[in-house]
Design brief:
6-stranded antiparallel beta sheet, 2 domains, 10-stranded mixed beta sheet, Alpha-Beta Plaits, alpha+beta, 19 strands
Length: 456
């Protein structure tokens, strides 16, 4: 059977910048998928674009492509990415420029998929009766409409497949689903039809395994993590997909990390809701039908995946302004580190109360005692060598947050002794972009999706 290799090169914006290079140079692959987006990433990108209209995409992607563009063209490796974020046009245009500078002018094409951005049509959609209610609370979007900064629908494989069909060597999208970056090339190459739900569901499972990079090849792995070799040059996953929908998860020979049934299973259950209904724009995959077979030598076979018809809805990621925040830290040392930190927090709260400032929330944690797992039973041991007091506030009033940032430093000389770790100065006031998940009928989005192919 024909086999297509789709390699993962990024699991999030900020991932190992050398991983895509290792994937391209380390052995044969057909496609390189680069996943940059998460809900919080969309909010960050929108904040950046609000300050600079030319921003709003994963800037790391462009210099990366300048490095690997020539090798990708020479080796016939095509790239699919959602690095476009909230500004895919700017990302694609920057890619064309660096492609010419990298020497692939006249030899490469960049596919641009857009239409996921709903901001220009948001009021029209609301007027048409699309409430875009919060999936978690049921509240209508009208409650925060005036504060909405971005709204992007999660799109699937169809426009990516069209860009590949039209000869794009690199496809740039906005808010594509993470899994579509892997299964869109498979639909294109292996000729699966839109109603071939089982095989598309297998592609979704492959995409879910691929989407977090080295998390399925030994990174962030709970099973015998201390025995995993050479994480410094960990190999990122490669999916070898066959026409029948079975596939093998592997990595380049000689690379670090490990591919086992356990490592792949950990990634499969990551961010899992109802395992019987993993919903994507193109299929609903049943993760309870997955069969895993450890072949040894960093190869795990996946087969038996079943799928069903997609729902009539698409998910929408909405970001809205939700006030301001600041977080500061002080480190207290032995003896009585935890007691000192608690006293410091109490003193700071008393001073803030006297200033009559307006906070929606004020939270303190003792890093090294209760910050990860929440309040613990009993008292922290007196011999803790050090504890970091982390204290943060959020408010609709920026002035209150700014005043908070001035009240931490005085604790160094006017609070409990043995403070260290304040060399960074006052905390920075940050605008909060809150996440609002919603659903919308796909017929309101998909007719507006467009595909362009730009010559490099």
């Amino acid at each position: 059977m024909r086999m297509i290799r789709v390699a993962s090169g990024q699991g999030f914006w900020g991932d190992d910048l050398e991983a895509p290079v290792r994937q391209v140079e380390g052995g044969p692959i057909d496609y390189l998928m680069l996943d940059y987006l998460a809900e919080v990433t969309m909010s960050i990108l929108q904040k950046q674009r609000a300050r600079d209209p030319g921003a709003g995409y994963a800037r790391d992607f462009v210099p990366l492509m300048e490095r690997i563009f020539p090798a990708c063209i020479e080796r016939g490796i095509r790239v699919v990415t959602n690095a476009g974020g909230v500004h895919p046009v700017g990302c694609a245009e920057a890619l064309v420029r660096v492609g010419r500078e990298a020497g692939v002018g006249g030899r490469a094409r960049v596919g641009l998929v857009r239409g996921d951005d709903l901001m220009d049509r948001l009021d029209h959609l609301l007027d048409e009766g699309h409430s875009l209610s919060n999936m978690e609370t049921g509240a209508p979007l009208s409650e925060v409409r005036e504060r909405v900064q971005s709204a992007n629908a999660y799109i699937g494989a169809v426009p990516i497949v069209e860009a590949l069909r039209r000869g794009a060597d690199v496809v740039v999208t906005g808010r594509s689903t993470d899994t579509a970056l892997t299964y869109a090339p498979l639909l294109h190459e292996l000729g699966w039809g839109p109603d071939d739900f089982d095989r598309i569901a297998a592609g979704v499972v492959a995409g879910h395994i691929n989407e977090c990079g080295a998390q399925c090849t030994g990174g962030n792995c709970m099973i015998d993590w201390w025995t995993i070799p050479d994480l410094a040059t960990v190999g990122f996953p490669i999916v070898e997909m066959f026409e029948d929908g079975s596939f093998v998860v592997t990595k380049h020979p000689g690379s670090g990390g490990r591919v086992t049934r356990a490592s792949v299973t950990e990634q499969i259950v990551y961010e899992m809701g109802d395992p019987r209904a993993y919903i994507t724009p193109d299929v609903v995959a049943d993760f309870t039908t997955i069969h895993l077979e450890d072949l040894g030598d960093d190869r795990v076979r996946v087969h038996g995946v079943k799928g069903a018809r997609p729902t009539p809805f698409l998910k929408v990621s909405i970001a809205y302004a939700a006030g301001w925040k600041a977080v500061g830290t002080l480190t207290y040392t032995w003896p009585d580190a935890a007691a000192k930190a608690r006293a410091g927090a109490r003193i700071l709260r008393q001073r803030l109360d006297r200033l009559d400032l307006r906070y929606g929330e004020l939270r303190t944690e003792l890093v090294g005692w209760d910050s990860t797992h929440g309040p613990l039973v009993g008292e922290p041991p007196a011999d803790l060598p050090e504890v970091e007091l982390r204290i943060g506030v959020r408010s609709d009033d920026r002035g209150s947050v700014e005043r908070f940032t001035r009240e931490i430093a005085p604790l160094v000389l006017t609070g409990p002794p043995s403070v260290t770790g304040f060399a960074g100065g006052r905390p920075r006031v940050q605008e909060i972009m809150a996440y609002w998940p919603a659903l919308i009928e796909r017929k309101a989005v998909e007719p507006h999706l467009t595909v362009e192919v730009l010559e490099v």
